[in-house]
Here is the input.
Amino acid sequence: MKLYEQLADTLAQRIEQGYFRSGDKLPSIRSLSQEHGVSISTVQEAYRLLEDRGLAQPRPKSGYYVSPRIEVPPLPSTSSTLHKPLRVSRWQQVLHMMSQPEDRNMVYLSVALPNLEAPTLKPLQTILSDLNRRVGLRGLAYDQLHGADELRHQVARLAVDSGCRLAAEEIIVTTGCQEALSTSLRAISQAGDIIAVDSPGFFGSLQAIEANGLQALEIPCHPETGMSLEALELALEQWPVKAILTTPTFNNPAGYCMPDSHKQRLLELARKYDLPIIEDDIYGDLSYSYPRPRTIKSFDQEGRVILCSATSKSIAPGLRVGWVAPGQYLMQVMHMKYVTSMASTTLPQLAVAEFIAQGGYERHLRKMRASYKQNRDRMLEWVARYLPEGTRASRPQGGYLLWVELPQQVDAEQLNERTQARGVSVAPGPLFSASTRFQNCIRINFAPEMNARVERALQIVGEEAQKLIDEVGKAA
Amino acid sequence: MKLYEQLADTLAQRIEQGYFRSGDKLPSIRSLSQEHGVSISTVQEAYRLLEDRGLAQPRPKSGYYVSPRIEVPPLPSTSSTLHKPLRVSRWQQVLHMMSQPEDRNMVYLSVALPNLEAPTLKPLQTILSDLNRRVGLRGLAYDQLHGADELRHQVARLAVDSGCRLAAEEIIVTTGCQEALSTSLRAISQAGDIIAVDSPGFFGSLQAIEANGLQALEIPCHPETGMSLEALELALEQWPVKAILTTPTFNNPAGYCMPDSHKQRLLELARKYDLPIIEDDIYGDLSYSYPRPRTIKSFDQEGRVILCSATSKSIAPGLRVGWVAPGQYLMQVMHMKYVTSMASTTLPQLAVAEFIAQGGYERHLRKMRASYKQNRDRMLEWVARYLPEGTRASRPQGGYLLWVELPQQVDAEQLNERTQARGVSVAPGPLFSASTRFQNCIRINFAPEMNARVERALQIVGEEAQKLIDEVGKAA
Here is the structure.
């Protein structure tokens, strides 16, 4: 353990033991340096680590303070046990949400869009502006089918952070994470097959299951540890499941991060039943703590895990730069990628590769992790303050999506209709399920600056939810 | 009929009747203006039209001359009659061709890549360099699922040239034409279904049929008029065909353009059997004559034709800008597009839209049509001169792909192996079929400048083909 890590641990212990309390000023950098006989920069590193862990906060010109403990709503409940494989519906609702015209007056809590106004994206903009001139004809030509080598090398390098050894040759670049998920799914299944999925789970994956004639078997998920391995095992005994599709790290929508031990057990189950796992890691790099959590892929020795990711959530979705590391399914996924769209667009791949190579991506991540974490705390405060009594909410440790369980009387689709009329959209829970679950749940985005406008949006959601509860009360 | 069209027709008649012969100087612009009592610009227009039709050629500072009639090989034979629906194989061969590392010393006659060095692409490069700065955050954000409105409007406007009335709302932007074809195919079929296809036909479509668990029913094609409607009708009577997938305009690889009357009859057949037609029009804009030929879609009143196209062959493939006009299948294709890759990359769409809006696309097309037509004549000359006796070749009226039928003793895959060892690749015929047809055929690209290097490449192909013939002779 390095010196600064030791010092951070010592300080963290004192905070946890109540020696320093919520809001207290922490010792100055100079005094700690003297007390522990370490350099100023070691103390600075230690404080930065505490900040990453959410224990300390800097205040300009004043020093570090213990992060305040805020009033937060309780966690949502574990989703109920599964029934049977189902066809997915609700495409009309998803389409409706995806096709809303851009309206500057709306607050879109419904979307899963990162903050694109971050100053740390400026270098990327510069690259995008200069790149075309620099690469000349290459930008116009077909790229290699598996993607630009520059990008594949950077992706392989970054994978080390998630405990994963990947060679550039094992990676195929895709048009966003959706193409990675969708080609993987089609590569390992045929119409009629059953896919075990997170419940709640990402509607893009669910719709891919539906559009390709597959069936979703929803596995209940715990709000802190993710997919229930007991429920999964029961399901695997009972049904001829073809693959497991999961977002174990900062799940969309539920926010949890499956612990390493669970990730390993999930992999063991997949081995026992000889199944591939499609792992969606698109939010993994947005971990509030560093190093980021490991992927299931990082435990995989057999190439059983198909890792899917993209820069859509960590950088910018409009570039559509994603990738897949398909393990033993490399050839099948390559075939699917070829017939789906051939090579991906050349210039955005080169831009992202350069942004990563220059260190811009890591600087941006560092900034975003801190910013999204602050936003989460603010959003949790507002949920506790403005949403009706009995509301529960997830406690994500990464990403920028909050899963909110409202009192049972609230119908989320009705709620969204009413808040939209007042300029606020939320993502209704039923979109995240093949069954009729999560009717009283919503997903909200906390990526943008948490300003008065967003606070007002939360008030509106709270008011409309309360009205729905009151109406049900009167009708009864 | 306009004045310049009348004049052009008069001149064309005189050429056809032998009044002016191959290589003759045509009357000066001034003398024609006086003779016919029309303006100088009318005569200029008339000559431009004759040039488009391939009848006249300008020589700098000298005037117009009758285009020379060149020695050309006879047309390939009509492909043999169909047998039954087949699974497609040869993915390994396609992958091998797609994955060749860029080697500056190779002459890739095998690829279907346009000439990217055309000066008329300069304005596009300027747009690509400036656009990002101008559109700011929009380049980073998700585009609309159906694509950028600017682009859809330009595509709708251009469709008029092919006799088609399309509203922007009927168009979905895709990641190249391959995504248009592949989402369309999946939207209207299920695993096991039979799709009637051109024989020979584009291997990207054939592989999409294979990867999606479909079967290809190959319909023989005439070298000048395309898909045999008699054979198609027989096939539709005999087999439960689910859809017709065809490239009727400047077919890849066979180069023919189906006449309007055939296009109409094909549509009637589709009506009779109540089938959708997936029409691949990616080469349509590269017609040597103006206006370009009509699409099948332009005759369609019921939304039965799903029109797929892209700028990959007419502008640049690396931008991956394609589109689909799915007619009555709009919703199904939209769903498939969503689950396949969500929205397409934003910046290339906006760049292409601006290039078209500024008139750059039409200027570029005008230049390319003339250039590809000249290249075709040169390539046909070389095929006649260097390839073994008995070689036949297509006579494309648009695009830049030549289909060459070598004497039966030549195995195209063996030929390609041998020419590659000498720095020249060709696309072997069997890739364009689900059966074992076209073993003695190759497809070659005549898009690049027809210089001594390309001429040498043709000599090499000829030498290696002759050796194969001689070897078979000896063995017999």
